Amino acid sequence: MTPGTDPADRSRAVHAGWEQFLAHGAVTSSVRPVVADSWRRSADARVARDGVAPIALEAGDLEAYRGEHPLARVLPLFRELLGAVAHDGAHLFAVCDELGRMLWVEGHRGELRRAERMNFVAGARWDERHAGTNAPGTALTVGHPVQIFSTEHFSRPVQPWTCAAAPVRDPYTGRLLGAIDITGGDHLAAPHSLALVQATARAAEAQLATLDRPTTSADAGPDVSVSALGRDEALLVTHGRRLRLSRRHSEIVVLLACHPDGLTGDRLATLLYGERTVDPVTLRAELSRLRRRVGPLLGSRPYRLCDPVRCDVLTAADQLTAGCPHAALRTYQGPLLPLSEAPGIRRLRAVLDDRLRRAVLASRDAELLRRWAEAPWGEGDLEVREALLAALPAHSPDRASVARGAQRLRLAYGLPDGDLAG
Fold first, then answer.
1. Where would I find the GAF domain in this sequence (predicted)?
2. Which of 112, 127, 158, 255 has the fewest CB atoms within 10 Å, i.e. is most exposed?
């Protein structure tokens, strides 16, 4: 809120906008655009206006999972920067993973008890699709720090609270690891709260960079990583620099990373352009522009990457080959360069997607199946939803919602009740 704004007045104005939205789908001028967009996503996901976040990780699974999570290594930093502030200020700090599942919720004892009533607890799922508009869930969706005030929350039980959250990313790959959040009363509706979580997230990323600093040697050369899963434009980290590549350069670098022995100009052109007739000068010009950005990393005769490269596409494939679908699904941030129409990229994308999907189905693991079914690329996958329903224990509280989702897909595909997708 701007200085001088009365919290009660602001809360009433936004609440009126919330009721207007629920009744008619219209958003009034009293609602910020970031909140309005989140309300629409929450409504599209059919979030219950009076519901609470579901529990996604039970005690035993939670302990094992968060112990292996990358953010566990910076938990002491979070406690140092936010722990005392939370206790003294009568609010909470929380850390969630990239799916919005709460890993740690700590702070003032009285506030912890209050937060339990809305399932703001470790193990609960607070992404927008399950909990509606809230700071950590919305920050994960939009990819930048977000502050959500009182009645800006989509779910009524959360509206007495105000929260601010910032996403935390892997410093080398840019992969989303989760978010850090502070939650409390109206006193958090100020710029310093957002600045605090943003600074904490940057401090965590800096510490992760120190902990994960790649080792180099004179023989191996500088470490290079390429992240292209779930990205329209690849992120290249080389010589300590982070470069966001254009779409065409992304395609070239991924293809060369996946062909470490190099590619001739003709073969690279075929993988990029297919059977289309393209003047060889066009490819040479693209390679020349790419070389100006990446320097000696790009070699020629044949075209190749001259340093050892870690590519998330290859990492996920290796993890599948090693029989580690959990690790592969953690690496997988979405389809490879999803907007690319280059034949070579389309083939790599289809092969990896098919291998990972088959591994998830073959695992019969409820957690893997759930992650696939709830991801944007798996929302319409009836076979996975049917497999998830079969994998859930008979007493699971999730069975009803999974069954409803499967039934909606059957109707959408024109299938009789009970048929499996092929």
1. 109-207
2. 112
User: pTM above 0.85?
Assistant: no
* Burial class, 335, CB count within 10 angstroms (exposed 0-12 / middle 13-18 / buried 19+): buried
Q: Does pLDDT of 15 surpass 60?
A: yes
The rounded mean pLDDT for the chain is 89
Domains, the chain, in order of start with CATH, read 7-211 (3.30.450.40), 224-312 (1.10.10.10), 324-412 (no CATH)
Helices (H), 69-212: 75-78, 84-88, 109-116, 128-131, 135-142, 191-211
Sheet-wide strand order for 92-97? 102-107, 92-97, 176-184, 162-169, 146-148
CA of 76: how far to CAs of 95, 135, 393, in Å? 12, 22, 36
Q: Exposed/middle/buried for 399, CB within 10 Å: 0-12, 13-18, 19+?
A: middle
Over range 40-63, report the average pLDDT: 90
Helix 280-294 to helix 247-257 angle, to the nearest 10 degrees?
80
pLDDT band at 212 (very low <50, low <70, confident <90, very high): low
DSSP string of 258-280, one letter each residue = T-TT-B-HHHHHHHHHTTS---H
Closest CA relative to residue 97, chosen from 118, 60, 67: 67
What is the per-residue pLDDT across 213-240, written as a single tens digit (0 to 9) for each? Answer: 554 444 444 478 899 999 999 999 887 7
Whether 421 shows a pLDDT value over 70: the answer reads no
How far is residue 22's CA from residue 159's CA, in Å, rounded to a whole number? Answer: 15
3-class SS of residue 302: coil
**Residue 412: what are its φ and ψ, rounded to 5°?**
-65, -35
